[in-house]
Write a structure and sequence with these properties.
The complex is a heterodimer. Chain A is α+β, with helices and mostly antiparallel strands. In chain A, 38% of the residues lie in helices and 22% in strands. Chain A has seven helices and nine strands; from the N terminus they run H-H-H-H-H-E-H-H-E-E-E-E-E-E-E-E. Chain A has helices at residues 3-8, 11-17, 22-34, 36-54, 64-70, 113-130, 135-171; strands at 97-98, 175-182, 190-196, 201-208, 216-224, 227-234, 242-247, 253-260, 272-277. A nine-stranded antiparallel sheet of chain A has the order 1-7-4-3-2-9-8-5-6, covered by helices on one side. In chain A, helix 2 (11-17) packs parallel to helix 4 (36-54), helix 3 packs across helix 4 (36-54) and helix 6 (113-130) packs antiparallel against helix 7 (135-171). Chain A is flat and about 70 Å long. By secondary structure, chain B is mostly helical. Chain B is globular and about 50 Å long. The chains are: A alpha+beta, B mainly alpha. Chains A and B meet through helix 2, helix 4 and helix 5 of A and helix 2, helix 3, helix 4, helix 5 and helix 6 of B.
């Protein structure tokens, strides 16, 4: 990708100034995690604006501090939305995360009851404890029970959706499933690649990959004409998800290496985790 | 930004994400003046600004777990919360953020502990003053005024391309100035 041209297109400026579309913001963040030059530009411009903003600082009346910090009393942090976070692929490819719940690929229907069971149990316990608590606490507990139910409901819906998508992939005759097995340094590791020959889209699920740090990313490579070509990166927390990466129309093998966060131009062969040959 | 500031932000960000409420006082000490300055610049009303400042701190805490350090710095995240709340407040009052071009009205009274020893009030005045008026206008309209590029083009009655060029130039100058 011509990063120079991208940087000069003005989209990074739009992002830092806040008038970029959500899609543009995601795109820039994505590209920044792959291309260091884009990250650098993003950082530099954000910093410039931070300093600009700071140059406008004004003294705050002293007695405001108590009021303002006092307003935090009883305020709780919100739980972040679970699952779906972006995968890293370059411009042009639509980012599609297809997060998948933790079990094997059997394409079977997920059972609703375990989740609902938990949620119901929590709700009942909380409501049961209701009788012995005073008014305010009661309201708080009820609120918590509601939140728990909402949360598990979301998880259940998400899991259903994911199970269906993976099943679609498995049933699709045009999709080839390639098992990547561990290397000498990582003998227990495994991963799978789903390659949709109909549209060349490649999906990766690196569930069997080892834990890596925040400073590292897994990078998927396809071996094409004897040379490795990057298919994108995923980070540690997305290992278990089914992620749509780049597309390729040809390749003889797929491999994953551990690279510094954001990926590298060339694979670090000593840190290859899994590799698998395309059989057809 | 110095390395110290970067480390500081990293630590503060971690405390915030981990749910350590004591971080809020630290954030207040470090950032309240900058946040207040931004809010005031936008709403230009002390009473409303106090209100919004409080909302901002509540929001920072509420959304603290969702702060993603890989997507940018803590300070930028906080500044954006402040900007958005201020612009929204103005809009709900059916007002559009006015951008004063009178540069002198924007200056801080005195420098406080947040600034690194190298920077002083005089230095900052010079730096901000170095932005040509037309460049400063577009930066301010975007940053404090929440305008999109096409809105700016219309308001200022200039081509969209010119807006883009000025934004780019302005940001490049700001980038060099504050090193």
């Amino acid at each position: 990708m011509d990063t120079r041209a991208y940087i000069e297109s003005g989209v990074i400026e739009a992002v830092v100034l806040g008038h970029a579309s959500e899609q543009e913001v995601r795109e820039v963040n994505c590209l920044a995690s792959i291309y260091p030059e884009v990250q650098q530009e993003l950082d530099a411009l954000s910093e410039a604006l931070e300093n600009y903003a700071e140059s406008h600082k004004q003294k705050v009346p002293e007695n405001w501090e108590n009021d303002i910090l006092g307003a935090l009393e009883g305020v709780n942090q919100e739980e972040p939305l679970s699952v779906v976070s972006s995968s890293n692929n370059s411009a042009g490819t639509q980012e599609r995360e297809v997060p998948l719940a933790n079990s094997e690929t059997n394409g079977g229907q997920r059972s609703l009851s375990p989740f609902m069971g938990w949620a119901a149990a929590i709700a009942i316990l909380l409501i049961g404890g209701w009788m012995f608590l005073d008014q305010n606490k009661q309201i708080e507990q009820l609120g918590m029970a509601m939140q728990e139910l909402e949360k598990s409901n979301m998880v259940v819906k998400e899991n259903l959706r994911l199970a269906n998508t993976e099943r679609e992939l498995l049933l699709n005759p045009k999709v080839e499933r390639i098992l990547l097995s561990g290397t000498e340094s990582f003998p227990e590791a495994y991963a799978q690649v789903f390659w949709d020959k109909g549209n060349d889209q490649v999906y990766l699920q690196a569930k069997g990959a080892p834990e890596i740090t925040e400073e590292e990313s897994f990078q998927l490579w396809v071996i094409r004409d004897g040379a490795p070509v990057s298919m994108g990166v995923i980070d540690n927390e997305n290992r278990e998800l089914l992620i749509a990466l780049e597309s390729t129309s040809s390749g003889s093998a797929f491999a994953i290496t551990i690279e510094p966060r954001g990926g590298s131009l060339n694979p670090t062969l000593e840190r290859m985790v899994v590799i698998g040959n395309v059989t057809s | 930004m110095s390395m110290d500031k970067r480390i500081e932000q990293k630590e503060l960000g971690e405390l915030l994400r981990s749910g350590d409420k004591s971080v809020m006082k630290m954030l207040y000490i470090h950032y309240s003046e900058s946040i207040y300055g931004v809010i005031l610049r936008i709403v230009q009303n002390e009473e409303q600004a106090k209100d919004i400042l409080q909302d901002v701190f509540v929001q920072i805490w509420k959304k603290g777990k969702s702060f993603d350090p890989s997507k940018g710095s803590l300070f930028t995240w906080i500044l954006n919360i402040a900007r958005n709340k201020s612009i929204d407040r103005l809009r709900s009052n059916n007002r559009s953020p006015e951008i004063q071009n009178d540069v002198s009205s924007v200056y801080i009274e005195n420098s406080s502990s947040n600034l690194s020893p190298k920077e002083d009030t005089i230095g900052l005045k010079d730096l901000v003053g170095q932005l040509d008026e037309e460049l400063k206008t577009v930066i301010d309209l975007a940053y404090f005024g929440g305008r999109t590029q096409s809105e700016m083009a219309e308001e200022l009655d200039i081509p969209l391309g010119t807006v883009k060029t000025r934004i780019r130039k302005g940001l490049q100058i700001l980038r060099k100035q504050f090193k």
